[in-house]
Amino acid sequence: MHIPAPGTPIPQPQADTGAALPQRTGAPQSWMVRVADAKYYWYDPLVEIGDKPDIRDPVGRYLRRMEFELDATAARRHLFLAVSRPRVRFDIAGALHWGFFSLKLSLPLLLGAERRKDGVTVELKAPFGAKLKKPTIAMTESFLTLDWGGPVEVLSVHDLLRIYAPAVQPPGTVALVGQTHDPEARLGRGRLPAMRQLREQAGAAHDTLLLVLGVQVEVNCAEGDPAALPFNTDPLVADTLLAERVDLIEAALARHFEGGQARGRQRGERLTAVQRANQLAQYTIDLALPPACGSYNQLGSASAGAAARHLLSCFIADGQAQVASMPLPTVLKAGKS
After folding, report:
1. CB-based burial label for 40 (10 Å; 0-12, 13-18, 19+)
2. What integer pLDDT is reported at residue 42 of this predicted model?
3. Which residues, including other chains, have CB under 8 Å from residue 8's CB and lie 6 or more apart?
4. Is 131 exposed, middle or buried (0-12, 13-18, 19+ CB in 10 A)?
């Protein structure tokens, strides 16, 4: 880690073509990074559909909407985690069972490549505008369609478990960390080489999900956040500054979850230049997923223990992100008076 002495010219990181260089502050910075929003997408059906999905069909509309949402992230500076989970499918040969006087529904499942029989009981919630007390159900191995006599809901098997499963599901394994920003929008169209390779490695025993993260960076600096400087509020300049921050966050998360495998992809000169330009002494990442991620809130990997929250202390040294897990703060319960 290197913080230039006062008055030392600060080297500027190489920006994308056409991007303007931000105005810099002269004081050291530290960052606090938190998850602003997060959303899961089941990646496998998106790749397997081939041609454009049929929007006349509810499942086709679901897949098309997922394509649009992922295409939209290609223009934004979001992060994504490729999360591997044990393969699960609906058992279309099995029977569905409704609970008496409730929306409790028992569904048969098939687990793993060996298609081991299992099941889950969930309690559905009727959407606004529902005209039926219980929906009409259509089921494929991957999707559940609920026709409420007006609104029609489509849930993938992973949506159902994530939203409605009564207990926390097994942790997901983070296999890859990347950024969504891509002029070619390859991620949402199933053409990103790293994701193709990952799916091949996962094989028939695992499903691949994308967890798209928007992050919020709080800057601690004696001269304030450079993003608030008038010159840096220009959209092109602001995007350059955001790209620098996201590059360092990606590098740290990749180092945490991928371990040594991430080193070959990290651009050491870029990381060092960004660290020096921002005079970044240290940054903390608080990776905790919002309630919308439901029972899929635990993440881990071969190099990171599974947890619902990862609190990481990070800095850049020798062109690499150096990361250490921090103990979680203790929540004190109020005593009885």
Report:
1. buried
2. 96
3. none
4. exposed
- Name the DSSP class of 57: S
Query: What is the extent of the structural domain holding 105?
Result: 88-164
Count of domains in the chain? 1
Answer yes or no: is 246 within a domain: no
Rounded CA gap, 205 and 223, in Å? 52
Domain membership of residue 99 (yes or no) is yes
Q: Is residue 122 part of a domain?
A: yes
pLDDT per position as a tens digit, 204-222: 899 999 999 999 999 999 9
* Calpha distance 93→199 (Å, rounded): 27
Q: How far apart are CA 67 and CA 303, in angstroms?
A: 31
Spatial contact of 79 and 182, defined as CB atoms under 8 Å apart: no
CA distances from 65 to 43, 152, 292 (A): 13, 14, 18
Give the model's confidence band at 11: pLDDT under 50 very low, under 70 low, under 90 confident, else very high: very low
Q: Kindly state the helix (H) or strand (E) to which residue 155 belongs, with its residue range.
A: strand 152-156
In a domain, 119, yes or no: yes
pTM, entire model: 0.90
Q: Which residue has the tokens 């608080």?
A: 286
Tokens representing 178 are: 């990347």
pLDDT at 8 over 50: no
Contact assessment for residue 170 and residue 183, using Cβ atoms and an 8 Å cutoff = no
